[in-house]
Amino acid sequence: MNEMPSSASMSHEISLAISAENLRPLIESVLQCTGSLTGWPVGRVALQEAEAADCIGVPSHVLRDARLRLKLKHVRSGRSVLYTSAQLQAALQTMTVNAKSSEPSL
């Protein structure tokens, strides 16, 4: 009597190679659908001010100025100023360009 190997004992490996440049648009599309920022580091809940500014593509003084004018919500952890993805997304929705200069303002 011949015994057929069980499916648990059969192992098939498949490898898929996709270049980063081809994968990036897909990842960015998924992140937009989930409401995450494209530059947001995976596994991070909040970013410090300079990191957050880099993530949304503005100079860090823009976030600092908006925070000090009490228009930008933030979190404090000790002496650190932190921003969540949701806070940055809300800030981006309200960000406008001043008609007299090309500097973004909140």
Automatic annotation (TrEMBL):
What protein does this entry describe? DNA-binding protein
Per the UniProt record, the source organism is Neorhodopirellula lusitana
Q: Domain of life, per the record?
A: Bacteria
